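Technical note accompanying the year-one report. For the benefit of new consortium partners, we illustrate the data format agreed upon in the data management plan: each record pairs a sequence with a structure-token string. No post-processing was applied to the example shown here.
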Amino acid sequence: MTVKLYRNARIFTPLDAGHPLRGKEQGRIEEYRRGAILAVNGLIEAIGEENKVLGSLSAYSVNEERDMEGACIIPGFVDPHTHMCFAKRREDEFKMRLDGLPYLEILKRGGGILSSVKAVQSVTEEELFCSTKKLVMAALAKGTTTVEIKSGYGLDLELEMKMLSVIRRISKETPLDVVPTFMGAHAVPAEYKANPDNFVDLIINEMLPKVKGQGIAEFCDVFCEEGVFSVDQSRKILKAAKGLGFEMKIHADEVHDLGGAGLAAELGVRSAEHLLAASEENLRAMGKAGSIAVLLPATAYSLKKPYARGREMIDWDVPVALATDCNPGSCFCESVPFIFGLGVMNMDMTIEEALAASTLNAAYAVSRQQKVGSLEPGKQADFLVLDGETPTALAYHAGNTSVLEVHKLAERVA
């Protein structure tokens, strides 16, 4: 048995109420001014004010005790939306967008997602693993201890399963907890442009059953957007995925208000992502359905678009999470501290709301709330030590990370 005590720390954490935090509840953060964490075999046994935690020590022989000297501790970040498994960056397309070419036009020209598909085709599984691991470890150093990674740069069964195999290896060979998502419906391949319904049928009848049989992916995601998959096509794919036991996610209303947020509410998906163009009516419907809005402010930053209405969503009782959307094209960013700052500065979220959005609500968005997302007894001792007195440092210290230490299961990993 390994017993570790961290004392004399200033601890900030949301508290799990059994559901994603929403409305005023999202801004409620517990603070222990002179706090302590007792971890047994990597799990939190006790947490709270130091004098109370010390009172529970009689049953344990502490192997390691550390005086944190008043340092600020928060839960490890959960990044619930990434495309970190890719083979090649798309820096040239970033320049195209800066020069005024719209993203959907780049996609029509064979760029965008389709260029990343070609890159995945051209590398070995080992090469893809190495490039993904490098990016994941960079995210870990900035405080991400749990990460969702999507496939979606394959668009055929063999390549999608190749990507999912790499994602499984990342889970086994790095310290992070990894949530694998199948996203074969990320774009329509060129050979199906004339009849995209045939590709939808391929996903439903061949890809989804085989991916389920592979036993890696937990979620199914679909890109519901003009020029990609319609609301009807997205509904068919997600309902088929649900029938096979996948949890559902949806890329919704990133560029146009197509009604993806409304579909998210209709199907009761776990989370809807992007939502830059989503209507108030559909967002309120999501809130009533319990679907989590996963907002990706670095994508709006990179695409030079208006930010999602994070402030309004919280006021409308929609549970909000934050994520990086790390990918080779529209948003090359693995830093949750940067996302945190954008949420506060550009979406008018409070420090407390942003903390809940990047920890507990993010954990709910990937169905990991029972293990991570908050510092509470029974959950993993995944926590960060910050360079600052409070989580405010994450937004205050712009252009840098305020994460000094990353602890996973009570072991320092960065």
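Partners are asked to follow this layout when depositing records. The mean pLDDT is 96.
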